[in-house]
Design goal:
This protein is α/β, with parallel strands linked by helices. It has twelve helices and eight strands. It has a single domain (34-277), classed as TIM Barrel, CATH 3.20.20. The radius of gyration is 18 Å and the shape is globular. The chain binds dihydroflavine-adenine dinucleotide. The site of dihydroflavine-adenine dinucleotide has 24 residues, from strand 4, strand 7 and helix 11.
């Protein structure tokens, strides 16, 4: 219900225009986004690294419809990789296929991703291909398969809300590919996705078990303590060492939980997005949690 409201607001130009004008100046966007520039992102990653937390850097943007814009995105990712290397940051990279031109043409997107991968490979850095809405799932998995033929340091993301995901995890485990498991942040129809939170959660747990048992260094990306507890208990029961998987969370969410997991010896990586195109990402974070909407309102009221 709340999710649907936020998704509807995401299409309202008055609301989105207002949020984009005020988000950085009044500070509420900075909770979830490192800032609009690479320098902001480097500063944020350095700070997290200082606390012993590795990161995954993401240059924000999606649904690029123009070849020149996609080329500019590639340049930004190359600059981010150079930044990680030169500043000796403990970070890898996360990229979105629709940002690299998947809406324009598959081979064009593949070529752009290859350019990013070549630079990452030169530095020995891992690249994660983020998963977008279900209209992209098949093509994203195909991109990942093709890229892996040349670049082993690549992995992708599987969403527990999609009905197809157990099969995809079986394939990715057989390929020995590194998977990040998430619940899924996009509004999906019942034909392809579970609609009840209880089902999405149950599948997250089942898929976590498949990854912990048969996967290669899986990443369980969730802020949900119940999902984390389940994974920890399953790993303990099956004598799966803490070093063979990691948890991932997004910037600005459950810092207490990140800290306590780290203290107990679990790997925790934080997803650090940056860039001017932060609004769609930000709206997805609002849809996830009513308290985040109150947080925005409090910031706006405090500013007056
Ligand atoms: P869920 O939203 O079900 O919340 C369960 C509980 O977790 C809450 O009750 C609360 O206790 C806690 N919680 C959750 N969000 C919180 C918040 N914002 N603040 C405080 N507490 C919170 N999605 C996708 O479709 N493709 C992708 O590539 C990625 N990539 C990605 C990377 C990383 C590192 C993360 C952490 C997440 C993603 N996601 C994603 C997003 C993911 O699909 C999902 O929408 C969010 O992680 C929210 O789901 P949770 O598992 O956290 O639980």
């Amino acid at each position: 219900m709340l999710k649907s409201l936020v998704y509807a607001l995401s299409d309202n130009r008055t609301i989105t225009g207002f949020l984009s004008r005020r988000g950085m100046s009044s500070g509420f966007a900075r909770r979830f986004v490192a800032g609009e520039t690479l320098e902001d992102a480097v500063r944020c990653v350095r700070e997290l690294n200082g606390k012993g937390i590795p990161c995954s850097l993401n240059f924000l943007g999606e649904h690029v419809k123009d070849r020149r814009m996609a080329a500019a995105v590639v340049d930004s990712y190359l600059a981010a990789l150079d930044g990680i290397q030169e500043q000796k940051l403990d970070s890898n990279l996360s990229v979105k296929p629709s940002q690299l031109g998947l809406d324009i043409d598959f081979d064009f997107c593949l070529a752009n991703l290859q350019t990013v991968m070549e630079r990452a490979a030169r530095y020995g850095l891992f690249v994660r291909i983020d998963m977008e809405g279900s209209e992209y799932t098949e093509r994203t998995l195909e991109l990942h398969r093709k890229i892996r033929e040349r670049f082993p340091l690549v992995g992708t993301v599987i969403q527990s809300m999609l009905r197809r995901s157990a099969g995809d995890i079986r394939d990715l485990n057989a390929m020995k590919s590194r998977v990040r498991l998430v619940k899924g942040a996009y509004k999906e129809p019942p034909a392809v996705a579970f609609q009840k939170k209880s089902e999405v959660d149950e599948w997250f747990q089942r898929l976590s078990e498949m990854l912990l048992r048969d996967g290669v260094f899986p990443a369980l990306a969730t802020q949900d303590p119940a999902m984390i507890d389940h994974a920890v208990r399953f790993a303990d029961r099956n004598r799966i060492p803490k070093e063979s998987y990691e948890f991932q969370m997004i910037l600005g969410v459950r810092r207490d939980l990140q800290e306590s997991l780290k203290k107990e010896g679990y790997g925790v990586r934080v997803y650090v997005p940056f860039g001017k195109q932060w609004l769609p990402y930000f709206m997805r974070r609002l849809a996830e949690r009513p308290a985040n909407i109150l947080f925005v309102l409090r910031n706006l009221i405090a500013e007056r």
